[in-house]
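#dry-run=false #mode=assembly
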Amino acid sequence: MSSEQYQVPTGSGSQAPGGSRNFDAEPPTAMHYLCGDCATRVRLEKGQPIRCGSCGARVLYKERTKRMVQFEAR
Amino acid sequence: MKPSKEELERRNIVGVGAERVTNVTSTDYPGHFPGEDHAWDLGYFRDNVTIEFHKNEPLEAEFSLIGVDASIANAFRRMMIADVPTFAIETVHMEKNTSVIQDEVLSHRLGLIPFKGGKTGFRKFMKFYKKPEDGEEHSYVDFNTIQLSLNVECTHNKKAAKNETDVTKLYNHAHVYASDIEFNPVGRQEQYFSGDNAIVPVHPDILIAKMRPGQQINCSLLMHKGVGSDHAKFSPVATASYRLMPTIKIKSPILGEDAKKFQKCFPKGVIELQTVTRKESKEEGPFKGKEGEWKAVVVDPMRDTVSRECLRHDEFKDKVELGRKRDHFIYSVESTGQWRSDEIFLEAVALFKEKAKKFEHQVINMAR
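#status=ok
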């Protein structure tokens, strides 16, 4: 498994839905994607152009969830 | 008034014509023939039932069950398929799967792999797992769940030759096999399933998935005891079927070239060509003066497939009578390897007895 573990979102009940959130607790600003062309892991900040850093391809794929997924073997 | 031997044989044979079957229903029950008592009798049944094995290998058995009604024979067949329990993977917890095979498809494939383990543990210790109702917590304990895991990663093989093209040599774990599945015993499973009794796939070289370097499969698998009526993956047999014993009656002799042609109408070994002996040729009858000629003789009707080919030829049409014995069932049981093939039948018989006892109890309660 990779070093970053999936953090279970902990929404506190006191916040009103749609209201302002507390962003002090390190908001996830960067996301990782997989390049559709060269398959390297691409780190993207908020607002960055969607583009692979190493080969310049513009097709990026979302990574697989780090959560466990349960299936029935049927 | 007792029926003659010929009459009993006639009743016991299902006729097979070129385009139809005759005498299909059994008649051995009370009230069908006036003056005859066909009431079911344990002693009569015990004396008349026979089982004869023709082939008994761990993965395949063929045997005859003679002297029972079709309903009983069919019950055994159905119970072998749907009621004899085995192990199979039921739940897959997928942590990582970067191979090209989709999670669902991989899970399904894992479910179909047959596993074997210690028989005492399987019979006495392991219980059926009960699926939780809505809102209930699942209850995985050592006597209803077996934990397995599959953790494989494909990497480049550094030792491979430079111009190697075989992917199994070029990469480590390019192919994921059933033998890569590990058994993780918990609780008392250690004492029932260790050493020779460990839970392993019956066939270690079942291909589960193919991978390339950088791809990885990590998952934990939960296995339960189950029955075939729930899902075919729990069925202990690949096939369990029966057919009725064929009969071939040659009414008037088939001689010479006709005999050779007649032999070719059947699978190998059913009909034999014999020469008419001097003694036969001297006696009054169909063989008179035919010494040294070929005659067709039925030697092994069990091998016949009852293709009815001989009935298509005009020269044989009235000389031969095809049929099947109504109470002679030739079973063919092919095991998936968790039980020995003959054990499956015994297990079915034991289950049948258990069910009959339960039914008896209910009937008694009903009559009260």
